[in-house]
Amino acid sequence: MSLRRYKSSLLAIVGLALLLGYYWYQQPLIVSPFGFRLLANQGTTLALAALAQLTVVLTGGVDLSVGAIVSLSNAIAATYMGDSPWSVFGVVLLTLGAGAGAGLVNGLLVAYGRIQPIIVTLATLYVYSGFALLIRPQPGGSVPGYYASALTGAWGWLPYSLIVLLAVTLLFRMPIMRSRLGTAIYAVGDNPGGAHMSGINVPRTLVSAYVIGGFLAACAGLFLTAQTTSGDASVGTSYTLNSVAAVVFGGAILGGGRGLALGPIVAAFFISIIISVLFAAGVSSFYQSVFQGAILILVLMFGNAWTLRARNRLQVLRS
Amino acid sequence: MTTEMRSSPTLASRLSAFTRHGVAVSYVLLVVLIIVAVILNPAFASWANVKAQLQIATFIGIIAIGQTLVILTGQIDLSVPWNLTFSSILMATLYGQGYGFGVAIGAALLVGIGVGLINAIGVAVFRLHSLVWTLGMNALLEGATMVYTNGQPPDSTIPGVVRFLAVGNLGGMPVSPLVWALLAVVTIIVLARSRFGRFLYATGNNEPALFLSGVDTRLVHVGAFVASGVCAVIGGILLTGYASQTYLGMGNDYLLVPIAAVIIGGTNIMGGAGGYVGTIAGTLIVVLLQSILSVAQIGQAGKNIVFGLIIIALVLLYARQARPTD
Amino acid sequence: MSSHPDPSSHPDARASAAAGTLLEARGISKSFGGVHALENADFSCRTGEIHALLGANGAGKSTLVKVLSGVQRADAGTIALAGETVSFSGPADAARHGVATVFQELSLFPHLTVAENILIGHQPTGFLGQISQRRMRAEVRELFESLGVDHIAPGAHVADLSLADRQLVEIFKALSKKPKLLILDEGTSALGRKEVQRLFDLLRKLKAGGTAVIFISHRMSEIREFVDRMTIFRNGRHVATVRAAEASDGEIVEMMLGQKVERSFPAKTRIETDAPSLLELAGFSAGSGLQDISFALRRGEVLGLAGLEGQGQGTLLLALFGAYRGIRGEVTISGRPAKVATPWQAKASGIALIPEDRKTEGLVLPMSVRENITFSVLSSLGRFGFVNPTKERAFVARMMERLAVKAASMELPARSLSGGNQQKLVLAKWLETGADIFLFYDPTRGIDVGTKQAFYELIVGLTREGKGVILYSTETSELIGLCHRVAVMDDGRIVETLQGDDITEQDILAAALGVGRGRADAGSELAEAAQ
Questions:
Q1: C215: helix, strand or coil
Q2: What parts of the sequence cross the membrane (chain A) (predicted)?
Q3: CA–CA distance, C77 with B73 (Å, rounded to integer)
Q4: Cα–Cα dist B165/C110, whole Å
Q5: Nearest of A107, A114, A96, A108 to residue A63 by alpha carbon
Q6: Count of helix runs (H) and strand runs (E) in chain A
């Protein structure tokens, strides 16, 4: 019963397991404290971005500004962080606040402006990346070494990045999703009209989901900054579309109401690690995006292959 | 809507449809924007500048044709950037290798048709969300381009025909806006008068109902996506002629801007309502905005911010959704 | 009870002193874009009564429900609850005042569990607002037990439930708010007779506890025996309030329509015994939902499909129209083998489908009447893939006249038409596709009595032209009144085919329940057992 819940994540889990198995075969060194750290660090940013995307997708929307918020957070963090622990602490809070604020703007426009999420976030993508560019016209900036190692280091076999990811997932996102707000987020995505008639405050639920999404995207930006230790206003661009891909690969339904955190997190690792696997397999870097695209396409087709067998075509059309 | 219109319901419903879809509003905005631009800088009204603006609008406008058709069916085509880049590079390279311009352009168009077909198969047969499916296609095409060019900026010559279409003059008129005008007229007629046009709107509104009317809705998706693939290729070829070169990433600026033009032109992003008449206004608004922002010299960051804010403002003005209870 | 009730008389003049008025709505008006849905309407009900609200389509019942439940605000008028004037800011506010509503459009969340659906918005929470699944299920179980429901698992997903169970969940969702006033808008449309009976047992328990119930249904005859009083609405106004026992069905229909309408069926077309068969099925199957269907449909014949709800009747119609993949068996049309693997093949073979839900399957609601009528015939209205506007308008005008479609203009969106007129559009698009075989999926569901009558005439008219009709209806009287033969389905098979005088309510029910026909008394016993 409880395992059945995770059926939608199965495709991503099997995919990642096969990928890691092949990677291990190619590069036995990855089963080492160092290798684990490398693998974990590679996927964490996208995993956080995917959680951000998932929260919005669950309401039936999509957040095209995730990448821009990642860039904005990276620009803020790398530009203002300084060296003292207090300024680091302050700037981390500031960055998370900026992310949540960006989410708030998205949410207000969607919920009270009544504009399609895809349009809102397409427009705010420009706005937030503009602010990122304003803060960091050229790539540069820095973060203190201890900040970077606190997030990307490891304690023996245990990479800190996994702890960060687990902490964000279990201590921040899970309590929210298990509260009435969490059910409301699912409900709004499942049946918006029904949610309104059931007495759920639909606009407030939407705004909350976008704020959570913005906050999580800022988490992704902060982690990315620890990885790159510098700022770049366009560093987050690829995270928008990859986060959507991870969410879909991870079994959530674009359109809302269905999806768990596990699948998108696992899928995010799959998407992030595959580049290294191809590199280790000796595939020329030119072929890498061919493979990435081909794998994404095959996975999507495989995931929806049921449409070819389904008897009731009408049901297929409505899916 | 009002009492005096009731006497002629046809007219009334048409008028209300017009304003509801934002087409009228977008044209009013366009006029306002032109007036503002001319007041800010009288040189804006010069023939040289108008020609230059139209030239830029052509690429966006042609790509937005395909995007309008796809968006009308409730989908979106995110494979435009690398479809455009790959086909342009293919065309230029083939021509550079000594093939005739017919072969070169034909190959490029075949790429566009193929991409459209694959996009349509994913959406219509596998029922995948176009947002992710066409995105995967885009990644695949990016890879194909890298493999084809070895990651080097291609060194190639541009067919004279392409140069002429892109930057030539015909009796004082620049040719490329004429190409756009021709395609625009065809598009508007197809949308208004053809069976395919009718089915596009129906598919975007309620695909199961059209399916149960005995219409093969898969073909509607094929038509829309193939049109989009071909429009991206034509846009890319003209862009190649305009820039006198092809380069990796030349399509990157032609994804979001045409989509913005479609939305500003009042086409519903969820499909089923709108049309190309509005997209023309949307295209010109987007181009004018960009050029006003350039003239104002506020830098890329400021440009992005203002551009995003203006899209939001315009959409708030006329493309809001109904309340759930209405 | 006079046969011509005076709307100005006080409906509550007879109110017994014992029962107090719970709800008093006065002078409610609400209009949408110039159309008055409610015009100065009054309505009241008392504590501890079951009160039916009746009216034809467009009478304003649903609008009144939306106003009473806080979904929409009235333009004018006052609502008093237990003597206190109220103004609801939304459904949640109405719920706080003790008004809970079961809406016509199901407001459930298919991918949440039964328990989450029922308790949505007021789930039991603990530390840090965390929902307690255990307490939630316990609460729901308790709720189920109090009303003797034991076949629905609180942890099941609503998407996996039958339509009838979903409607029960919807009702429990309203009940979980412990309302003083419970409103059921078409709350029984998906329920079988047995379930309706059970629902009313449940409502009587609530009534005994002092809850007032407002009940809206098209199935008037079915609910009559269960309700205390009835209020009839017409054209957005209150017409009369009567005791359920006082007025006859005929009188009520008359009040609903404002004129006397005989509900009768047109004479069935005579079929010659040697009439050629139009459609023959042999071993027609679609997975487990449809097994080994064989029959022949003759020209001029109406073949009915009956049985309990969801026994493959819908699947048969959809599969015949090519909406199913992997169908097996032989299909012969006019003596020639035919392929119906897709809707376009079915259409080319001369099959037309009037689907179950006109709003989501039959019409493209935002598009115009003209566009909706021509989807299936567009290729014949122009050349080279283009549409000739003159031809199209002429065609549409002809169809609208032939079917007496009431619309001010053919350019109006289909959405703006009444249910009956919408259904006519769905039929209109098929009339000139050259179709010989018409498949009707419950065509009169949710349309008013007058238009139903028009539909009966249309169906018989088709048979007079030599067409064949397969009709699935949830109203047994329609099957009896219109069909030459009735195939009763159970679990994807045809279990019995009734003909002529054998088509009676008892025989259909007996066959549906899997007991041999022929013994009328056994049939009536079964009818009782089923209740």
A1: strand
A2: 6-25, 86-111, 118-135, 155-172, 206-224, 236-254, 261-283, 289-308
A3: 43
A4: 55
A5: A107
A6: 16, 2
Span B157-205, pLDDT tens digits: 888 888 888 888 888 888 999 999 999 999 999 999 999 999 999 999 9
Q: DSSP of C418-432, one letter per residue? A: -HHHHHHHHHHHHHT
Spatial contact of A161 and A40, defined as CB atoms under 8 Å apart: yes
* pLDDT for residue B20 is more than 80: no
- Chain A hits for B311, CB-CB cut-off 8 Å, are 119, 122-123, 126
Instruction: For residue C148, give both structure tokens.
Output: 């003797």
Asked if CATH classification 3.40.50.300 holds for the domain at C7-98+179-257, the reply, yes or no, is yes
Q: How confident is the model at residue B322 (pLDDT cuts 50, 70, 90)?
A: low
ipTM: 0.86
User: How far is C153 from C149, CA to CA, in rounded Å?
Assistant: 10
Per the structure block, which two tokens stand in for C156? 């099941």
pLDDT band at C520 (very low <50, low <70, confident <90, very high): very low
Q: Which chains touch A (3 or more CB pairs under 8 A)?
A: B, C
Residues ≥6 apart with Cβ < 8 Å to C173: A198, C102, C107, C108, C117, C118, C119, C120
- C-alpha B71, offset from chain centre: 10
Distance from CA of C233 to the nearest CA of B (A): 23
Mutate to test the interface with C, among B201, B203, B213 (most CBs of C within 10 A): B213
Sequence ranges of chain C with CATH classification 3.40.50.300? 7-98+179-257, 266-350+435-531
Which H, E and C letters describe B183-252, residue by residue? HHHHHHHHHHHEHHHHHHHHHHHHHHHHHCCCCCHHHHHHHHHHHHHHHHHHHHHHHHHHHCCCCCCCCH
Judge contact between A280 and A35, C-beta under 8 A: no
Beta bridge pairs of residue A120: none
Domain extent for B178: 48-253+268-275
Distance from CA of A179 to the nearest CA of C (A): 5
pLDDT band at A312 (very low <50, low <70, confident <90, very high): confident
Q: Do A113 and B312 touch (CB under 8 A)?
A: yes
Tell if the CB–CB gap between A316 and B263 is shorter than 8 Å.
Answer: no
With respect to residue B312, please indicate whether it lies within any of the assigned structural domains: no
CA within 13 Å, CB half, C374? 29
Question: What is the second-level CATH architecture of the domain C266-350+435-531?
Answer: 3-Layer(aba) Sandwich (3.40)
Q: Is C129 left (phi over 0), alpha (psi -120 to 50) or beta?
A: left
Q: Supply the CATH number for residue A306's domain.
A: 1.10.3470
What is the total count of domains within chain A?
1
Q: Which residues of B touch C366 (CB under 8 A)?
A: 205, 272-273
Cβ–Cβ gap C107/A194 under 8 Å: yes
- Cα separation, C530 vs C265, whole angstroms: 27
Subunit contact A190:C110, Cβ cutoff 8 A? yes
Judged against a pLDDT cut of 90, whether residue B218 lies above it is answered with yes
- C interface toward B at CB cutoff 8 Å? 33, 66, 71-72, 321, 323, 342-344, 346-348, 353, 355, 360-368, 371, 375-376, 378-379, 382, 385-387, 389, 408-409, 411-413, 429, 433
Helix (H) or strand (E) holding B37: helix B23-40
Question: In this predicted structure, what is the pLDDT of residue A253?
Answer: 84
Count of alpha carbons within 13 angstroms of residue C443, beta-carbon side = 31
Residue B294, domain member (yes or no): no
Q: What is the pLDDT of residues C324-354, one digit of tens each?
A: 888 889 999 998 998 888 999 999 999 999 9
Element containing residue C240 per DSSP (H, E) = strand C237-243
Q: Which residue from C71, C375, C389 is facing B213, i.e. has the nearest CB? A: C375
Question: What's the domain range around A69?
Answer: 3-318
How far apart CA C199 and CA C170 sit, in angstroms, is: 12
The answer to whether residue C329 neighbours chain A at the CB level (below 8 Å) is: no
